[in-house]
Amino acid sequence: MPNALPDRIIASMNRENPLAECQNCERAFHIQRAKLFYVSDIAPDTRKQIDSWRREIESGHKELRERRKQMAKTSTVGAQSVNLGFLFEAIAPVLPTFPFNPHDCRALGDPIDLIIFHGLAEHGRVDNLIFADVKTGASRLSNRQKSVRDAVNKNRIEWGIY
User: pTM to 2 decimals?
Assistant: First the structure.
């Protein structure tokens, strides 16, 4: 079959890893493995430029690997911080430094952590309601939490029975 190799080469052009034919030995090879010119034929200035680009690419790859490692660490630390925050929110009412009676606290979770029915456990009646969020470290109120705070501060609170 004299046309088998050209037909195979043309068919391979439609695939991801096309083949080419060597001009010297007439064998088919994957183009991705081809060396398009001999390294010894490159002009010295061109060789310097290629070496410079190669070092730049290698440096970029190294930096990318370091960034990926750092991102993984940051992600892990962030997840651990969030988990510790959830844990602290759950145990905060029973800590000795918590300023309210833990029996007055009810966990809400989102958008705020607690509603405190101040006085309920001690007097059997609610003296006032306190909307509270437990924060650790440098964490801040989210926009949703700020909107709750603002509604409370502006007395936009109602009672309803449904």
Answer: 0.50
Q: If you write DSSP's letter for every residue of 24-65 in order, what string do you get?
A: TT--EEEGGG--SS-GGGS-HHHHHHHHHHHHHHHHHHHHHH
Q: How far apart are CA 36 and CA 82, in angstroms?
A: 53
**pLDDT at residue 38 tops 70:** no
Return phi, psi of residue 140, to 5°: -125, 170
pLDDT above 90 coverage of the chain, percent = 30
With beta carbons less than 8 A apart as the criterion, state whether 1 and 11 touch.
Answer: no
- Cα 67 from Cα 156, distance rounded (Å): 47
Burial of 111 (0-12, 13-18, 19+ CB in 10 A): middle
The rounded mean pLDDT for the chain is: 81
